[in-house]
Description:
The chain is mostly beta strands. Helices cover 13% and strands 37% of the residues. It folds into two domains: 17-90, Immunoglobulin-like; 97-264, Glucose Permease (Domain IIA).
Amino acid sequence: MKRFLLAVALLAAAAAAHGSLPEHRPAPGGVAVIELGDAGQPRPQALYQDEPVLVVQAHGQWHAIVGIGLDAEPGEAAVTVDGERHGFTIRDRTYAEQRITLENDEYVSPGEETLERIRSDHRRIHAARDTRSARTPDDLAFRLPLEGTFTSPFGLRRFFNDQPRNPHSGLDIAAEAGTPVRAPAAGEVIETGDYFFNGRTVFVDHGSGLVTMYCHLQDIRVATGDTVAPGDTLGTVGATGRVTGPHLHWTVYLNSQAVDPLLFVAGEDATYNDADDD
């Protein structure tokens, strides 16, 4: 009887994990979770802005999991399945402002030689970001990649030496240099590199347009093509690239859009300190 109850408990836990969904927050930089229909039917192909999006099974239903870009305009939107619209509303959201002073002006107004390196970096970064492998993520309930202090939150409108730059596309977690950075979910390492702004960086493909990025690492402990399980070490916290102190910059890309990583971390209540890490 005890063995039976244990088996039931394990099956229930596995089912709960399989049914995990990110938080539904349809706003710029957020995620829309759209119910598509009975999971007893074949997996549908859902499109958002004419591009395929992640579709997963949870609670007996198929759901489209849509990343909404930080530059999205509030208003009516939809995913389509075989021409049928599944509508949702993108709500307005205002992000806070962050001003950072950097002593190295090359990180603010780079010269032509540096700009050529940055363009090359962007091509590699965008190729990894836009990966859409055929696999479906094992689980959408992420764990945090390390324990630390949340400093710069996702979406901040940033100014470097009083010059406006792109919004902050990830979550900064400060920790001592050398602290292990671990995979929040299963996936495959699809890119590693040492980039001008991002420093030493790892990209992990979790499947179907869900990709995570880990920046400013002190060292990298994986290689392209490696398969990782939740909790595997990807590298260690560092201060490489454009930084003012050791920390991890963690980005989650969903259908090529950077979205708030904490939407995938169940029960995580973000509390930020006033610090300028990136």
